[in-house]
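=== RUN LOG ===
request id: a7f3
mode: sequence -> structure
chains: 1
length: 230
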Amino acid sequence: MKRLWVTLTNDVRLQWRNGFYIVSGIVIVFFLLISTQTGRWDLRWLIGAFVVGNLVVTSFYFVAGLLLLEKNEGTLLAQVVSPLRGTEYLGGKFGSLFLIACIESLMIVVVFVGVKFNPILFLAGLLLAFGLFLFSGLVMVTHYSSINAFLLPSVLVIGFLTLPLDAYLGHWQHWLFYLHPLQPLLILINAAFQPEAPGMLVYGILAGMAWVFAAGWWANRRLQSYMQVG
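=== RESULT ===
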């Protein structure tokens, strides 16, 4: 537990030093500006899209940037000879970046819909969606040694990961989307703002947890190999 706490605090310092919190502030200001142009529109149905879009940056790209930064600075190599476990390294990244994502997402919700929502469903969906994008980002970035090589193929991966979101925005439904890892998480997030059938909530929780645990297992394996090579 002590190693995890030290890793978490070190990650927060690293993110602060490299401007991650400045980017977070810019994101919040961006959504504040959008809210000034929407007037009295009811945007509850768009909150899921706003949150997922924000997570693409805060989890997927932030964790990829951190890993490449540590690799280039040589600190990733130092982790190999330290007693730090891979799960503790992942836990530090997860906890520190989720803090940013949680603050940003709650700000987005309050700005657009106020405080009338189900916080339990929202945080459950947010946590699982964050995990999916973070672990996917880790798996993806371990195949590359520079941010330039990573960026272009990452767009294709994000395009796949957000397919249900595109269909949702286009009001297009198909049963195949229920096999996609983002679909149950999108259902949970949206259920915090509009009624959803109990069966869909059970599907959202169980399927969402299964996908995130699978992604976490894969990310841990890829990370171990990456650290040995790095």
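=== NOTES ===
The chain has a mean pLDDT of 88.
The CA atoms of residues 161 and 182 lie 7 Å apart.
=== END ===
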